[in-house]
Sequence to fold (167 residues):
Amino acid sequence: MGLMIRSSSIHAAGCYTTSPLAKGVKVVEYTGPRISKKDADAKFQNSTITYLFGIGNGSTVINGYGTAMFINHSCDPNCETEELNGQVWVMSLRKIAAGEELTYDYNLYDGVEDDARCYCGAKKCRKTMFSPEEIARQKKVAKRKALRAAEARIRKAAQKKVKAKRG
Fold:
């Protein structure tokens, strides 16, 4: 099986297969140095693009290099990732035609990325690369934040009223 990197309509460059792939095959390994999430957060704090892949419980990341780092996100992917014996493999979810761009759902989970907009173009695109669980978590956080802000405005208005009466 051959893979090639070329322009992608999803994002910059993408990874394409040059031959048909069967469902359920190992396509390519996600490789690179393994570093702690804490070190990665510090090292890439001001980077707009990273190729970090969280593994295990998320406390370790692979700082990707090689072919797999060019596989773009899609909300309707043709591949998925799987950890097997300490390695991360990109696996085909279905038959993939020669020349088709390989994609997997990034399912970002730590909310660190300020801009995780999705440009995959899928019919049921989530418009973000965050996982559904992370989207729900972010909504809860935003709701709590809005509630605290509303409570602060109410307190401030009440204090203003009290000052005006004393005034």
User: Anything to note?
Assistant: The chain has a mean pLDDT of 91. Strands lie at 3-7, 13-17, 26-30, 34-36, 52-55, 60-63, 72-73, 79-84, 87-92, 103-104. The CA atoms of residues 161 and 167 lie 10 Å apart.
